[in-house]
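Whiteboard transcription, Tuesday session. T.W. wrote the structure tokens on the left side:
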């Protein structure tokens, strides 16, 4: 025979209430632990950062650090002044180079026109002309250098001055060359 329990519906609801309470309390404990752990971690970080800040402030207020900082400021001011001068000099140099008619390229092209029998004694460079004193073993070489210099693109006119065989070694001629330069714009 079976017993009939009239209170069974009430007992199941009581068990359900206990289960939901266990879940609620468990969740509250987990959330509380999470809050407690984050509080501890954040407190530790705050204490650590405060001590680090105190150490850095002590280093900054140290007299050696102040001296080094003052030296660094002086060096930075000097650097700024030098940078201003460097920019100014670079601008001046750029402007001078843009006006430069006689360049190493031009001088190299002049030396490339030399026949084997001709050599230069001196070169005088001005802004509009190049004056050359030279020696040659033959008159033909003098004519050849004149022809070669006239063919250069930067030279407008070439004049050969007096050719002299006096005072030179036997068979050598001294002469002057004046090269008038074209204006480069």
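and on the right, the sequence the group agreed on:
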């Amino acid at each position: 025979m079976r017993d009939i329990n009239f209170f069974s519906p009430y007992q199941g609801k009581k068990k359900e209430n206990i289960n939901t309470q266990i879940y609620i309390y468990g969740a509250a404990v987990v959330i509380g632990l999470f809050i407690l752990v984050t509080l501890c971690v954040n407190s530790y970080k705050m204490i650590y950062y405060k001590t680090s800040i105190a150490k850095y402030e002590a280093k900054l207020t140290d007299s050696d650090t102040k001296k080094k900082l003052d030296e660094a400021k002086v060096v930075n001011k000097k650097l700024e002044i030098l940078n201003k001068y460097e920019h100014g000099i670079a601008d001046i140099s750029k402007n001078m180079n843009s006006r430069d008619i006689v360049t190493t390229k031009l001088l190299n092209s002049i030396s490339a026109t030399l026949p084997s029998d001709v050599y230069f004694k001196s070169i005088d460079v001005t802004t509009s002309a190049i004056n050359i004193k030279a020696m040659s073993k033959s008159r033909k070489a003098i004519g050849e250098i004149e022809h070669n210099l006239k063919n250069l693109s930067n030279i407008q006119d070439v004049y050969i001055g007096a050719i002299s065989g006096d005072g030179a070694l036997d068979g050598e001629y001294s002469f002057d060359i004046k090269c008038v330069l074209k204006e480069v714009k």
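Someone added at the bottom: The chain has a mean pLDDT of 83.
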